[in-house]
Amino acid sequence: QVQLVESGGGLVQSGGSLRLSCAASGFKVDSYMLAWFRQLPGAEREGVACISRVHGRTSYADDVKGRFTISRDNAKNMVYLQMNSLKPEDTAFYYCNADLLVPGYVYWGQGTQVTVSS
Q1: 77: left (phi over 0), alpha (psi -120 to 50) or beta
Q2: Is the pLDDT of residue 102 over 90?
Q3: Which long-range contacts (CB under 8 A, 24 or more apart) does 92-95 make?
Q4: Per-residue pLDDT for 54 more than 90?
Q5: 88 contact partners, CB below 8 Å, separation of at least 6
Q6: I need a labelling partner for 88 at 20 to 30 A (CA). Which of 1, 13, 54, 59 fits?
Q7: Cα(82)–Cα(7) distance, rounded to whole angstroms?
């Protein structure tokens, strides 16, 4: 059974850092496209960063480029999102996502709250 469990969210001051972790089970992280999304109440979920399954190529939303870094640890079967220089507008619920790029094989974690105070 595929499962994603996020951790590492919390309250941080503007300019601070947090590292989100996503523990994956039921599949190997290097066999799926992995991503972090975030969502504000009443808004659509938006992609923040992703890492490709074969070559580990990364891609970022424009407003987090240079501040956030997505990575994976194949041995630990973990996905991470290092967030630096956090801004109040980064406040959101953050979700880990795994996508096999085949219909019906998309999985989500339960999410973790990140709050950045000004």
Answers
A1: left
A2: no
A3: 92/38, 92/39, 92/40, 93/38, 93/39, 93/40, 94/6, 94/9, 94/20, 94/36, 94/37, 94/38, 94/48, 95/6, 95/36, 95/37, 95/38, 95/39, 95/45
A4: no
A5: 14, 116, 117, 118
A6: 59
A7: 12
Torsion angle in degrees (nearest 10) through CA of 109, 111, 102, 35: -120
Q: Which residue is it, tokens 């808004």?
A: 43
In this prediction, residue 41 carries a pLDDT of: 84
Please work out, in degrees rounded to the nearest 5, the angle formed at the alpha carbon of residue 56 by the alpha carbons of 28 and 104.
50
* pLDDT of 101 over the 90 cut: no
Give the Cα separation of 68 and 12 in Å (integer). 15
- Report the length, in residues, of the chain: 118
Cβ atoms of 74 and 61 closer than 8 Å: no
Q: 36: how many CB neighbours lie within 10 A of its CB? A: 26
